[in-house]
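Troubleshooting: if your tokenizer reports a length mismatch, compare your output against this known-good record of 119 residues.
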Amino acid sequence: MGGVLLGQAQAPQQPPYAQAPSQPVADGPDFLAVDKRNAVVVDASGVAFESSGLSIEFRWPEIRSVHYQASPGGKALMVAVIHMDGRFFECVVEAKPRSRLQEWFPQLAWVLGHYRPTG
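Known-good structure output:
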């Protein structure tokens, strides 16, 4: 079961993440986890979720924190963004094969540490 869970308020609709950004993005490491319907991207601009064709982007100045864990049963990566105003957003990406989840954890930790070294 994957998807983006929106907190207290609906997020404004954003153009798909795959479109070219309006401002150039600085070079740096990035992280991508993708399945048939959902995706999580972490890069120099921030964090983006895509769920069943709907996208939402969070720029680093808007993000209070980013959390991640394995789903119950270890079949998916669950990534949550806590917005500066307290709203909670989550995206779940299925890991196929299941061993991919163990590859994603160190990659995601390293990229998040690069952009948010203080947490």
